[in-house]
Design brief:
Layout (H helix, E strand, L loop, with lengths): L9 E4 L2 H8 L8 E4 L9 H11 L4 E4 L13 H13 L5 E4 L2 E3 L3 E6 L5 H18 L4 E3 L13 H12 L2 E5 H11 L3 H6 L6 E6 L3 E4 L2 E3 L8 H14 L4 E3 L8 H20 L7
Parallel strand pairs: 1-2, 1-12, 2-3, 3-4, 4-7, 7-8, 8-9, 9-12
Antiparallel strand pairs: 5-6, 10-11
Length: 282
Amino acid sequence: MKRHYTVEGAGLGLRRELLESLVGGAGTDIDFYELVPENWINFGGQLGKQLRSLTERFPFVSHGLSLSIGSPAPLDEAFLQDLKKFLDAHQIRKYTEHLSYCSDEGHLYDLMPIPFTLEAAEYVAGRICRVQEILERRIAIENVSYYAAPGKELEEIEFLNAVVEQADCELLLDINNIYVNSVNHGYDPSAFLAAIPADRVAYAHIAGHYVEAEDLIVDSHGAEVIDPVWGLLEQAYQLYGTFPTLLERDFNIPPLPDLLDEVRTIRSIQRKTREGQDVSYG
């Protein structure tokens, strides 16, 4: 049976640098967009009108930054109520967040790793359940890049699977994060990919990164996607079928035509995988 997804095809992350071009009619071959809700909630005026003009024309998903699902601090339920109104007002088809934390008594500018333990998995799953109760929708949680594993008792994939299963939530599969972590922590990315809860994938991210050293990669979202990451995406499609996939670019944002070339690469790999053809990149 074919899996139903809330969006389809190849998408692009909405950034304000791109807004004028997109509102003006460029990028009509993009199948869906993703926004960061914290950057748009309670914005009116010209920016609000421009966003509305896009959400009325295109399917949108959202990717949160500040929920801090693994934090020891209580969930910000006032924020979640504002978020629910925003998601409903713009008919956002999926809300996603990071499997990490970024706050306690104040907010950080980094996504911190949650200890890979059964106790932490149970704690985080309970908080995800509460988020889903408030938002009245199932959310998706993203596998994140991390640079240390404090208190580790489980492998990353075991922790991820435990959280998703206990919370009964979906997975935002970040292909670049698998590659980055495989280099930084010395594991086989194909084996990780083969062990994901594929029936829970809502959509995927793909992005570029920065090579600090041979054994240290930084998940920057500031460069073009490299061939090994494209190859990992192709492996995922071959294992599980073609699922919606979105290009992330947060820094060093090039002209829109360059981003559209990468979006077309996603679509090309999807099409060729469905047709059983050999795939080339670049």
